[in-house]
Amino acid sequence: MAPDLLALMGDTPLVRLDRLSRDIGPTLVAKLEMLNPGGSVKDRIGIAMVEAAEAAGILKPGGTIVEPTSGNTGVGLAIVAARKGYRCIFVVPDKVSSDKVSLMRAYGAEVVVCPTAVEPEDPRSYYSVSDRLASEPNAFKPNQYFNQANPMTHVLSTGPELWRQTDGRIDAFVAGVGTGGTVTGVGRYLKERKPDVQIVGADPEGSLYSGDSIRPYLVEGIGEDFWPETFDPAIVDRWERVSDAESFQMARRCTREEGILVGGSCGTALVAAHRFAADQPDDALIVVLLPDSGRGYLTKMYDETWMAEHGFNQPTAGKGTVGDVLEAKSTDEVPPLVHLHPDETVAAAIALLKEYGVSQMPVFREGIHDGASTDDVLGSIRENALLDAALRDPGVMQRAIGEVMQPPLPTVTLDDPLGHVAAELAKGGSALLARDGDRFVGVVSRADVLAYLSSHG
User: Fold this and answer.
1) How do residues 213-228 score in pLDDT, each as one tens digit?
2) Among 162, 239, 321, 406, which is least packed by CB within 10 angstroms?
3) Which residue has the higher pLDDT, 258 or 424?
4) pTM of the predicted model, to two decimals?
5) Residue 77 · residue 67 · CB < 8 Å
6) Nearest 5 degrees, angle CA 292-CA 293-CA 294?
């Protein structure tokens, strides 16, 4: 019998992935970190960082733990805090699923959500916000990106477990790289005992680790736009860069075929492991670390609507074109292309949005109505931006649209397939301006695409 829940962290099992590896020679096995009490590999560093801070006198009774996290570290820390009586404030990027936010709050933590698409130095970033909160009296920031208890706990626990569980026969270790603590700690331990063991880093497209240009991506918890001090890049022998689509599709496949409910970064690691294994000897033993469960992503990558919106349901998203969507939404009550001119007022724009039941409109050059060309498109107005402006300044209602309009909507052609449309919308926009030759003929929104798919799926 364990004395408390904290004693059950670690010693997670290995399982052979016989379904996902049936087309390759090597043996592929998974380290099931979702079987930790908090549901992820981050349970290990949660208790390690807190106990190290207690021993150093940094964290005192009644203190507050402040941490920037994609969710899993927050859960691990929240469990430790619940047992030890600390207050928790977690700062998360806005791409973190609502399931994870609810889970952290269930443990009694306070959660602050910050924008993803800003530089780490930006005062709105989740790194900067956590720094401000951690400057309050009696607050402690474990800082998993710089805390050496992060990689050390994997030197002391995860690495030895893998060595023991494989009887030292492990030939390669594959893991997604976020803070770098897991791959650094496990890699150090294994290389000390078997210098030729291969350490493979799984990295999302848009992360700097594997040399890609920094840009947004949807997989949570791995990849970075800076180099954490907890990561030793010399440990990684080979990088595998994986797209969001590959990651989510492989994670869903693992759930369906292996019966293991995994998260998106698990899919990234599985794709990387499968690629690596394809050119290894048949007698190789490859271990892939699966960091968390899919329970935190049920409203995202396991939701068919979310997948379709982001262009990841390829069989469905490939049916139909932009022209098909416009034809399906066409009615006698709504003009083909509802638009505004720059001298019209914000109040008039809001009335027009309400009249036609739309959330965004293009703004055309004065005097242009039908048959606008690229040179005639000046910008756009969007319902959420107008609402924000009106809340900040009630006088904006009488200002001209030309003073408050936003950049033009991205464009697509009538022949573009819906898979392309979904990919464009996944970049953050809510609608696209459709072009027939050199003339614009309509607007396609997320709601339009979903309505079309629901009736033609």
Assistant:
1) 998 899 999 999 999 9
2) 406
3) 258
4) 0.69
5) yes
6) 130
Q: Which residues are catalytic?
A: 42
Q: pLDDT grade, residue 318 (50/70/90)? A: very low
| Closest to 133 measured CA to CA, from 181, 73, 63 | 63
Q: Is 46 exposed, middle or buried (0-12, 13-18, 19+ CB in 10 A)?
A: buried
Taking each continuous run of H as one helix and of E as one strand, the counts in the chain are: 17, 15
> What is the secondary structure of 211-241 as a DSSP string?
TPPP------S---SS--TT--GGG-SEEEE
Enumerate domains of the chain plus CATH numbers. 5-40+150-297 (3.40.50.1100), 42-140 (3.40.50.1100), 305-456 (3.10.580.10)
- Give the angle subtended at the CA of 75 by the CAs of 71 and 79, to the nearest 5°: 170
Nearest CA-CA partner of 120 in 225, 222, 203: 225
Residue found under tokens 């698990």: 266
Residue with tokens 């009488």: 398
Give the Cα separation of 52 and 43 in Å (integer): 14
